Amino acid sequence: MQKIKVIGVGPGGPRHLTPEAKEAMRGAGLIIGGERHLKTFAVEARDKLALKSNFQEMLEKIILRRESGVVVLASGDPGMYGILRFLLKHFDPGDIEVVPGISSVQLAFARLSMPWDDAVMLSAHGRPAEKVAELARGAGKAAILTGTGGTPEKIFKLINQGPEKKVFYFCYDLGLPGEDVVRLSSGEIFPEEYRDRQNCVMVVLDE
Question: Does the predicted TM-score (pTM) go above 0.70?
């Protein structure tokens, strides 16, 4: 029985896909991933499934097509707030081969030329923004993966409700053509032109 290959595609641009990941995708009978990742990395795939909230369909497809070779694409690294945790609820670790990727958090700190071994990792995907902001306020250094319910602007405003003085870096669209890094301090106004940009890693530091 072939293993299910879970491949980290990094921040989403072809430049950050590792050679091992490219090799693991070759010859796959089915590639599963977000629409953007399928358009970028699965152009020549024999069959593909766009992953949204259709997790049950994904599981059924994996079981049905496993012998043809199944690849699941994951944003960043599969083991960091990624799809791996979900798959391990339904398959044994021995059924899965993980090909790690460059996480957006790694790339954010690289862009800032800043070490991150002392940073707290937080995610606003499926978690209350208020709780994420509370944890970030109490950390000397935090990296936050923003989400639909916890946008960069919302988390910025929530953290600013506390007395702590912070410096904020907003790392947008890392590894993509529109990549941009914005720096703000506590008390500043969130820029109007960035309110609709959601693909962001926030780095929050004590001032």
Answer: yes
